[in-house]
Amino acid sequence: MTTQEAKELGIVYQVTTVDKLEEATMKLAKKLACGPSIAYSYMKDMLYQTSFNDFEEFLKMETDAAKCIFQNFLYYQ
Question: Which H or E run contains 19?
Fold first, then answer.
């Protein structure tokens, strides 16, 4: 599989050359650092939990996380 095929399939986020790797990495890091850190935290935790919970439990966790994120959003508005 080529890198372009991997990108088209959604396996990788971005394809770049070696000489532009550091620049692309820093750009993505800055974008993530300015993003919704609470939502990122929940996403990371839920991804981890998919290995240990069934689908119904995962849906409940996702609903609870969405409620918490929305409440946090409202608080800071």
Answer: none
List the domain range (segments joined by +) for residue 59.
37-75
Number of structural domains found in the chain: 2
Which of 48, 47, 3 has the alpha carbon at shortest distance from 24?
Answer: 3
pLDDT tens for the chain, 77 residues long, are 998 899 899 999 888 999 999 999 999 999 888 888 888 888 888 888 888 878 888 888 888 888 888 887 777 66
Residues 66 and 45 in one domain: yes
If you search the block for the tokens 């550091």, which residue do you land on?
22
> In whole angstroms, what is the distance from residue 55 CA to residue 13 CA?
26
If asked whether residues 22 and 47 sit together in one domain, one would say no
* Cβ pair 45, 53 in contact under 8 A: no
Look up the pTM and report it: 0.54
